Amino acid sequence: xxxxxxxxxxxxxxxxxxxxxxxxxxxxxxxxxxxxxxxxxxxxxxxxxxxxxxxxxxxxxxxxxxxxxxxxxxxxxxxxxxxxxxxxxxxxxxxxxxxxxxxxxxxxxxxxxxxxxxxxxxxxxxxxxxxxxxxxxxxxxxxxxxxxxxxxxxxxxxxxxxxxxxxxxxxxxxxxxxxxxxxxxxxxxxxxxxxxxxxxxxxxxxxxxxxxxxxxxxxxxxxxxxxxxxxxxxxxxxxxxxxxxxxxxxx
Length: 251
Fold this sequence. Notes:
Blueprint: E1 4-6, E2 16-18, H1 21-29, E3 37-41, E4 47-55, E5 60-68, E6 78-83, H2 89-99, E7 104-109, H3 119-140, E8 147-148, E9 152-153, H4 154-163, E10 170-174, H5 182-188, H6 190-196, E11 198-202, H7 210-218, E12 222-224, H8 233-248
Parallel strand pairs: 1-3, 6-7, 6-11, 7-8, 7-9, 10-11, 10-12
Antiparallel strand pairs: 2-5, 3-4, 4-5
Helix pairs in contact: 2-3, 2-8, 5-8
């Protein structure tokens, strides 16, 4: 398949389009040349076939072809609310969550999180995560960019979630203390998930504190278990996404 590139501007068919610097650098790494076929998408849905017309060290121009409305999204919306993970774990899990079809990612500052972001660091990480999402969509064939929200603290986010409770959908809190399995809850709530989506709340290393779990339950979350084994924070959310794919038609 032709290499895929995200461009952060609306694409029109049947025009000659200068490509942004990031795409030019990527095309150079791939050693693309004039005449090579590429695919362009702008995150608004669908993609465009295109052909490179000119390829220089600092610029490139493509001839944009017709629009292909094909999509590869899940048949339901899923938001991953993830406690901030340390090291490169957050990068890894965001990338893989995009591959598994997540619709939105909400990074959360929680009591037990080993990562603490001041305003400057939070802004830089947010920009970095957005770039990761773009690259992951290029790789996996998605034409719509999942939304990555700025990091916020759990209390603030839960208050906002409570205010949106009337919008429907299912809210799941993944907890080793839960007594009901993810599969049982999803199968029981299948119509609601397909209609209103699902939000997955995952704690950081060490999990959520008991009072944080209680606050989530008060806001309408249902505690679910992933079985007898304790999964790492970077594994739990991805395991949930894979299970939802299998149970609800994503695979």
